[in-house]
Design brief:
This protein has helices at 36-43, 64-76, 109-124, 143-155, 172-182, 202-217, 236-243, 264-278, and strands spanning 28-33, 48-51, 83-87, 129-132, 159-162, 186-189, 224-227, 245-247, 251-253, 260-262. With 280 residues, it is an alpha/beta fold. The longest helix is centred in the middle third of the chain and has 16 residues, at 109-124. It is globular.
């Protein structure tokens, strides 16, 4: 693995800055979806859709055909098309999130070849970002493979984001530096270690995410931190204030099958929070 020099930024600002002359990204709402019908409803509120399959398993890599179908369905419904991101995650975590280890985020040569082959077709069908989460055996960002993936994505005009594998890294600040140097533009984080944020208060998570977000923005190039994991309208204001972004599935429990169903009213409430911030 290549050595990644850790160069820390200067003093961390206490708050984030929205869409202005500072070069910061505008506040945004990202919604993960795995089917066309939900995509249409989510597209009415989202600035960006993260397309995946098996959302009930935290999301896995969708086929190119699924991406095409989702985009066509949104367009046919006459809804404005948000930015489209595609998740690349080949291994599902165990049902008990507390037992999830970083091994599910290691990618072998076959997986890397599959991603390399999928990217041109994703790009052809309007995807703007590929979301990866490559970790090495030390649970650190797999810098070599992330750098290679970023180069491949850029060759097709795509950005690269990092998913919640970030929360397994032993030193999140150093991980942000590595992502910056690899060319990754943003990362998801729940503001707590691992996949299970249980036992961590929203206040402590917001505090941690705010620190990470400020740190990431001072890197060159910057890395945006997007909060995830139990983001709802009831607590979204705190996470939005901490980072300027939200990632939420907007799903509620279904009485029919015990799974989750998309709640359009919830998405609208979260979008309203974002719009209020962007209008200031």
């Amino acid at each position: 693995m290549k050595s990644v020099p850790v160069v820390l930024p200067g003093p961390i600002a206490p708050t984030w800055t929205s869409d202005d002359n500072s070069g910061m990204y505008a506040a945004s709402l990202e919604i993960p979806i795995d089917d066309p019908r939900t995509a249409v409803r989510a597209a009415r509120s989202a600035h960006r859709l993260e397309i995946c399959r098996a959302l009930d398993q935290d999301g896995l890599t969708p086929s190119v055909e699924a991406v095409v179908n989702i985009r066509r369905t949104i367009e046919a419904a006459g809804v404005s098309l948000p930015d489209l991101a595609v998740l690349f995650q080949e291994t599902a975590p165990p049902p008990d999130r507390r037992r999830c280890g970083s091994e599910v985020f290691r990618v072998d040569s076959e997986g890397r070849r599959r991603l390399h082959d999928l990217v041109p077709d994703y790009a052809t069908h309007g995807v703007s970002t590929i979301v990866i989460g490559f970790l090495d055996e030390a649970e650190e960002v797999d810098f070599d493979h992330c750098t290679d993936a970023v180069a491949n994505h850029r060759a097709h005009g795509l950005e690269t984001a990092f998913h919640r594998a970030f929360d397994f890294t032993p030193d999140p600040e150093a991980a942000l530096v590595a992502l910056s140097q690899a060319g990754v533009v943003r990362t998801l984080s729940a503001g707590a270690p691992g996949l299970d944020a249980g036992g961590h208060s929203d206040a402590s998570r917001c505090e941690r995410l705010g620190t990470l977000a400020a740190f990431g923005r001072r890197l060159d190039p910057p890395v945006e931190v997007v909060p995830c994991g139990g983001i709802r309208a009831r607590n979204g204001a705190g996470f939005l204030a901490a980072t300027g972004h939200l990632h939420a599935s907007c799903r509620v429990a279904s009485n029919d099958n015990g799974g989750g169903v998309f709640d359009e009213a919830e998405a609208e409430r979260l979008r309203g929070m974002i719009d209020a911030v962007r209008s200031v």
